[in-house]
Amino acid sequence: MQQIPKEMFQPAAAELGEAEKISRPSLSYWKDVAIRFRKNKLAMFGLVLLVLLVFMAIFGPHMTKYDYATNDLMNTNQPPSSKHWFGTDDLGRDVFARTWYGARISLFIGLAAALIDLLIGVLWGGISGLRGGRTDEVMMRIADILWAVPYLLLVIILMVVLGQGLGTMILAMTITGWINMARIVRGQVLQLKSQEYVLASQTLGASTSRIMFKHLIPNAMGPILVTLTLSIPSAIFTEAFLSYLGLGVPQPLASWGTMASDGVQAMQYYPWRLFFPATFICLTIFAFNVVGDGLRDALDPRLRK
Amino acid sequence: MAEKQKLIEIKNLKQHFNVGHGQVIKAVDGITFDIYKGETLGLVGESGCGKSTTGRTIIGLYQATSGEVLLNGVSVHGKKSPKELKMLKRKMQMIFQDPYASLNPRMTVADIIAEGIDIHGLAKTKEERMKRVYELLETVGLNREHANRYPHEFSGGQRQRIGIARALAVEPEFIIADEPISALDVSIQAQVVNLMKRLQREKGLTYLFIAHDLSMVKYISDRIGVMYFGKMVELAEAEELYRNPIHPYTKALLSAIPLPDPETERVRRRAIYDPSQHQYKDGESLEFREITPGHFVLCSEEEYKKYKAMHS
Ligand SMILES: Nc1ncnc2c1ncn2[C@@H]1O[C@H](COP(=O)(O)OP(=O)(O)O)[C@@H](O)[C@H]1O
Ligand SMILES: [Mg+2]
What we know:
Keywords (chain B): ATP-binding, Nucleotide-binding, Transport
Distance between the termini of chain B: 20 Å
Structural class of chain A: mainly alpha
Oligomer: heterodimer
Pfam family, one (chain B): oligo_HPY
Distance between the termini of chain A: 44 Å
Bound molecules: adenosine-5'-diphosphate, magnesium ion
Protein name (chain B): ATP-binding cassette domain-containing protein
CATH class of one domain in chain B: Alpha Beta
Radius of gyration of chain A: 27 Å
GO molecular function (chain B): ATP binding
Shape of chain A: globular
InterPro entries (chain B): AAA+_ATPase, ABC_transp_ATP-bind, ABC_transporter-like_ATP-bd, ABC_transporter-like_CS, Oligopep_ABC_C, P-loop_NTPase
């Protein structure tokens, strides 16, 4: 090896001032999230789709002079026309009005699922994980037991007591719909609570709720959103499926599931009766998925470019 | 020496972890020492010997299995009113090892530093809060433009400064620094150590400085304690420990420090510590005994006589 004489070594000067500079302009957290979300084209498309769906769910049924529940036996199974934009069904009801009425039910179910996940699932899992020990064990055993109850069976049993309808489905969801979220959040909290920033917060004297809402939940937001974007469309689909089986909302209420179920029987002759509800089920589920993905990425400041 | 005032007294502190299947890890197994006001006590020992656990038990992150910790003569563990507890929390703070895990990635630097201010209600208005944050940023050598940034935008050394600012926000008397520099580049290590020294002078802080090797602690510590498997095996003034190490484990640790001069480094021999070399008999009690004034070693009665004869 070549020998370098001692005299050639010189201490390097520390340049503190230069090293402490960062060039990017600073922004608030939510502005930053919005910017990153907007850059994601697919997520923006999904968001526009959702806004349109909500808009049509609110105003759609009023845009046509036809009512979703009024039979018109003189005009059954009409194809889409300037009078009936999406055609009519076998009882002569306007499919356009019924589609947007169905959107209300689907979006309502989705909203209910999200609220149940957030209010029960996140808190249940969060408290269970943070407290640990006996509390954790008892809370998770309760969740395990509820997990073992099949949703379909629960809906059918509750239907016997409460009758068929949206309320029954939501009650069944309140009982079992949040378990997956609770488990995911608990796993996250178990992992996050030993992080040094949580310990630092504890040594500063932070309360349990501060640790939960400032440190644990914000850092578990990614998995929470992913779970939400799976459980909202799954609730929408479950409602459609139950309605398709005849276990959902009773006639003459319109749900995408009941409409599709009726439409399937006449698929070969009157395809529009299946096409519209089926398309909107797909679009809604797609929109929730891409918006969820986009949100998850946008919420993580580490992904900022 | 006599006018030294005890800030922290640790008495026979034990922290045993129950890891299930009837197994117990004795992470900290009966250690006793004092920390004087205004000094830096270095705590060294290899990874897994219980240094972090010691620090975390002292500060109350873990419930001690047994033993006592006194701050200014008052026990910090056990039943306390929420108000007393909050007061105690302010007096002891911690700086962590991993500059990447010790700052919440979802919070701005301002919110991170102001966390203690928010918890203890130390600022009455938003302006006052930001003013404190700016002051603290400048104290640790960062500037106010950094307040609205996120941790991931900073280097390891800068993050460690943010962690220090967060601890300083509640005006503590005592700071436990758990390997604050071991995750940093060597060139940055000195900067952080110098910052900590300056803060100690300016604010009269007392440090428990944890490190896994002896090379850097020498420059910051007044006294050094050496830990081995949950026990403290030697405690002495820094100079004394380097010049006259007594316990064979301390000797082994010292022999592991690389020397700056390549000529002497080439002939450096590493000593290996083998616990069986003590040849303790059954029933022999090991105690922390004072060999020369202020120099304590964990030893048996027999070893005590031997050490005493050798070192006086
Ligand atoms: N929360 C815990 N539960 C169980 N064992 C632990 C826990 N924390 C630390 N330990 C164990 O205690 C011992 C000491 O760990 P630690 O204090 O982190 O060592 P050091 O900081 O000196 O590297 C290790 O064997 C470690 O596995
Ligand atoms: Mg450690």
